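Structure tokens please, single chain.
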Amino acid sequence: MRKILGSLRKADKMFDLIQDGDRIAVGVSGGKDSVLLLWALHIYATNFPDKNFSVVGITLKFGFDGMDFDPLVKFCADRGIEYHAYNTDMRKILEANADKDGRLPCSLCSKFKKALVIDYAKQNGCNKFAFGHHVDDAIETVFMNAIFNGKLGTFVPKMYLDRDGMEMIRPFALVHEADIISAHERNEDLVIVQSMCPMDKHTSREDVKALMESIYAQYPQARNNFVNMLTNTDDIRLWDIEDFTTNYIGPNKN
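Here you go.
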């Protein structure tokens, strides 16, 4: 956990994520990333004297059969972590919008999930909400946008949602997935609720994740370079059409 907390603290300072008096709702799916984020933020709030904030775990139950959140309830109760789980109609909504092959729409799921977390965060007096996306997710998103959308971009460590009056933060923005896995292996008390969503591990992101691992295997230095790429905004070279027309200075310009 020391490495996880070190990366979390570095991200907090670098991106100014957490202020005194914050009450942060953590979206907890039950997966390894979100469960560890909830615990890490709880430790950060209760064991660092210069931090004065509180966290509350929020789980949305989608209604998929076989998902047991009781171990997560006990995990939080044993550690004094405030935690709430809410039943939703997400499974019915997703199944009603499935494509002809029965594949559930992940983009719709993400949209509704964020909206519901915001609603329940407000109900619990929170001014911010946090998701467990890590730095490898951010890198994968760059490549997903390039491959599938023809653009370069990724999610940001924090964003203020003006319409909702809430701030979204990603405290694991500098944490590697390998360190999250290692933290779970070293802390047997950490629980994981196995996802029963039929789309789990069957998305385009999994394909890109495999692509990234093949790149890292051949070019190990790429792992750190891709992290540096995310903040290297002073050295971007792309084709801006106006630079070659309106703003271009050359032999054909007066």
